[in-house]
Specification:
The structure is a single chain. By secondary structure, this protein is mainly alpha-helical. It contains 14 helices and two strands, in the order αααααααββααααααα. Strands 1-2 form a two-stranded antiparallel sheet. A hairpin with a 2-residue loop joins strand 1 (about 155-160) and strand 2. The longest helix is centred in the N-terminal third of the chain and has 18 residues, at about 25-40. It is globular and about 60 Å long.
């Protein structure tokens, strides 16, 4: 069998990903990364040397974490094709002891974003921010915030072949019930567009970015997933139970959860100074 990547092969890979019940976002990303490999290789046959060439090209255009994510997708495709001998290793990355202060959203900044959304009269965005940050759900899981779930006070989330129950705290439930009543929403997803479709990641991202200047928050910090990180850091700061946090976030591995609770450099430095080891 020829090892030249064809549209048909990529189509078969897409079918495999769907049968494996991968999320739409994962499927889209994997296909995009495999197409990048295909464009790089052209009409050449796939070999270990060619894939290593592709790996080298990634360093010139992507950060290491992004490059490793692309390599994971490419390796999945190579394994699917039975070309295991062509799989490559990811770049080695030393784990950070702390995260960049310029990237992590603080609670004060989150509050400013929520208040700004309210001042701008965007109650839907105001509640989307509070729902993600108050429950720790992924932006793609907002579709499970339904009228029925809000009334019950808990949401059953199905994502990445896992199902978990997420609780809605009383104050958030009260706000969402008022919103449902005001908007006349009687059933199904409550965060919807004018056409009645669930809000997409792009719509939410764009509306969040529009708050930055008025809220005085750096655009680099303002995206939905940072709200999930803030929830994780706040929960861990109270409970100190990483296993429970992993369950709440829907993580299969605690190693993933650890990434969410890394403190900023400033906080890391403060803790070191509090050790009082310099005489």
């Amino acid at each position: 069998m020829s090892r030249i990547i064809t549209k048909s092969m990529i189509g078969d890979f897409e079918s495999f990903l769907r049968s494996d019940e991968k999320s739409e976002n994962t499927i889209e990303k994997y296909l995009r990364d495999v197409k990048s490999l295909s464009e790089f290789v052209g009409t050449r046959e796939i070999s270990k040397a060619v894939v290593i060439e592709f790996k080298s090209s990634l360093v010139e255009n992507y950060e290491v974490t992004s490059a490793n994510s692309m390599i994971a997708a490419v390796n999945a495709f190579l394994r699917f094709m039975g070309w295991m001998d062509c799989c490559i290793k990811q770049f080695k990355v030393q784990k950070k002891a702390f995260c960049s202060e310029e990237k992590e959203l603080t609670k004060a900044e989150y509050i400013r974003l929520v208040n700004t959304a309210k001042e701008k009269g965007n109650e839907r965005l105001n509640l989307i921010l509070q729902t993600i940050c108050g429950t720790g759900i992924r932006v793609s899981e907002l579709q499970f915030i339904t009228v029925e779930a809000v009334r019950k006070g808990e949401v059953v989330v199905s994502c990445k072949n896992k199902t978990r129950t997420v609780f809605i705290v009383r104050e958030l439930q009260k706000k969402l019930l008022n919103y449902i009543k005001d908007k006349g929403i009687t059933t199904g997803c409550i965060f919807i567009t004018k056409s009645g479709k669930p809000m997409s990641r792009c719509n939410i991202w764009r509306e969040m970015k529009a708050l930055c200047e008025q809220a005085g928050v750096s655009p680099d910090k303002v995206f939905p997933h940072n709200l999930r990180h803030l929830f994780a850091r706040t929960f861990y700061g109270i409970e100190k139970d990483i296993a429970k946090l992993a369950d709440i976030l829907g993580h299969s591995s605690i190693n993933t959860t650890r990434i969410y609770i890394i403190t900023t450099g400033a906080e890391h430095k403060r803790k070191m100074e509090n050790m009082r080891l310099i005489i």
